[in-house]
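Hey L., structure's done. Input below.
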Amino acid sequence: MGSEFTIDQKRYLEGFATGVTAARAARGALPASSEAAPSGPDAIHIAAQDRATASGKKLPDQEKWKREEHPFDAYARLKQQAKTNTPPKPADNFRWRYYGLFYVAPAQTSYMCRLRIPNGVLTSWQMAGLADLADSCGGGYSHVTTRANLQLREIAPKNAVTLIEGIESLGLWARGAGADNIRNVTGSATAGIDPQELIDTRPYAREWHFHILNERALYGLPRKFNVAFDGGGLIPTLEDTNDIAFQAVTIAEGHGVAPGVWFRLALGGITGHKDFARDTGVIVPPDEATEVADAIVRVFIEHGDRTDRNRSRLKYVLDAFGFDKFLGLVEDRLGRKLLRVPTEAAQPRPAADRAAHIGVHPQKQPGLNYIGVRLSLGRLTSAQMRGLAEIARGFGDGDIRLTVWQNLLISGVADARVADATAAIEALGLATHASPIRAGLIACTGATGCRFAAAHTKESAEAIAEYCEPRVALDTPVNIHLTGCHHSCAQHFISDIGLIGAKVPVSDEDTVEGYHIHVGGAFGPDAAIGAEILRDVKSEDAPRVIEQMLRIYLAQRASPDESFLAFTRRHDAAALRQIFAIDTTSEPGA
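Output:
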């Protein structure tokens, strides 16, 4: 025989080798280096997971679930569960969050659905349509969130698919609104109508929003991710609490770049982990914001922690790498250098107004106004949703604008129609005015609808307002935020007074609902994380404790102009604990 194989022999040997390789792979004996490289939009995530396991670390369940079956490939099973009204098991409970659905048992044996509303703007007919869905698929109400978004609640599994498809039929979305994805894109609530804004954020928020929707590689991040655009308007956007903050600034001449409005780039905000977005020194042309954000997210995808979900946010990559290294990787992905200018290149930004989200305010358009509507801690009944839709259509420009302060605005109301519009709003059981307490009162869903919460935050917030309003004559805004757990959805760390839910011991065996209380938090130019000064305050005592704290502030402030924040800044944490050392054992009024 010759030394060369015939064609048939070669084919036989190739087939035999393939069979052996397949058998070895089935037994787990195939070396990792022999595996085919991942491809497709999920490749960047699979490669990151592989690097984590190759280093000897283990993936948590959430990463395994994503790898075993991408949530967007499992829609048929969600439909089947709807047909049988079957609640999801843990893996699918995680996957369905990619569709905006959160199964919140044991708090409620139903789903909560979180939407995506870029820049918080929806039309009157969309609001009316959501009211119909809230009635037909849910509990007949919605909540405005601290990301200028809406949640619908009490959705039975059988109604989940009908709800999602109904939302999309309205030209709205829930896709990617939960789990390890880029959440709702916030922007200035008064974008396009604000007399002092530097830029209208709506087109940039919408461009980024649609970029996310149509790029599967931007789903399945190491952890959730927040992006905000602030245009310099009257109502704060809280952009510095986001992973990426685009902050409009006016760059003066003489700094090597074209003068005009740019976005200043800040990174790493996550106030639940006690950090704000930090200025990078980078400025971005507004029309390049999506491209830059995409590069930042992709660097995060590659380098974010896939094994420790408590340290998997962008902040921890920045802490490990430093800003220069991280931005260098972003530049490598972009293929160009980012523009940097000194801080003094930016002109002072217009000041925000802490009361601008409530009441009647003139727009930049002559003769038109927006009306800030105060809700009951973000809650809207379906009847109120329809009523507001009719008011926006009949008295305004047809738009409804949600804010990060758990309320909404009706825009485009002519001067001559303000009184009628206000009366119509009040006829719905809503208000266009608020006390200094209620104007800044924020509460998460709490234990009524969230399994993580240690307290009924919305109920406690209402009790605090009802108790304090007739007893304390506040003459300046004081923000009071109540959050149910360490996730800090109500951002208690950045409020004048922040309460976080806790189980308060009342005996060796029993606990009751209560709070730990922080003071001195702030955002924007005054950004600071509040200091804990009281622990284990029972929920029933919280209204009286807050009342006494406000009384102490009014009695001891340096002047009538001194804000609560300025008052707390004059004292260190130890002194504040003494100042606010309130006896909760005494009788009310003692």
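Residues 351 and 525 are 9 Å apart (CA to CA). Confidence is low (pLDDT under 50) at residues 7-34.

-- N.
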